[in-house]
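[Meeting: bench + compute handoff]

Bench side (C.D.) handed over the final construct sequence. Compute side (W.E.) agreed to return the predicted structure before the next meeting so the bench team could plan truncations. Sequence as handed over:
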Amino acid sequence: MEWNSFLIDSGKAVLSAVFPENIYCMCCGDAIDPSVRSGLCSRCAEKMPWALGNPFHSYMEEFAFDDLLPCVRYGSYARKIMNGLKNGGQNYMAQSVGLMLAERLQLSWDMPDVLAAVPSHKSKLSKRGYNQAELLAGSAARHLKLPYQKGLLVKTRATGSMRMADGRTRRSMLEDSFAITPRFEDAVAGKHVCLVDDVVTTGSTADACARVLKAAGAAKVSVLCFGASSGVRKSRADGGEDEIF
């Protein structure tokens, strides 16, 4: 009887994994119907601070990228989801977040020729096991049926944590940190490239990547992300320190 019970329980576990009865909200953890493709319960979806505009629109001339397309304003809700994806090993979230990215990009009047991910340094890849931006870019590209060029950019040196650094410090840390993979050097000329990242705060990382792409001849660089800060209080043209708010 005990062996039979073990087999039954094991069978149920396998069936549950393959044919789950429910999935859970990425934000609050409540069970939701599997048909809810966004991965959010109705309550969290209503509270999510959706963003349709470009929060950096007032000072885009300071950046090498041409547009910023965030899904939400970065705050507690977005932080919880991204922490699960980046640090909690919940990389399955990339499918739902990738759908949100795809839907956000579809609201843009100018669709890109190719999607690419903001790269991670190999030391961080070794520690985490994956680059969350690559997962998001691949998922969004599949939903949109657009080309995704994995490995288009590489991060050539580790920069350490920039979590507490202001924009000026980040720009200094990121200088000469990115490059185009040699075999793709001619692949971006004249193209509209959409860079995908999880979160944009000061825009320094996206700017560094966009400068490399523009130097290689990219006609336009858009940045698509899940969360973005509301902006930077002082312009770098004023010589002030960037302050996220």
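W.E. noted at the follow-up: The two ends are 62 Å apart (CA to CA). C.D. will use this when planning the next construct.
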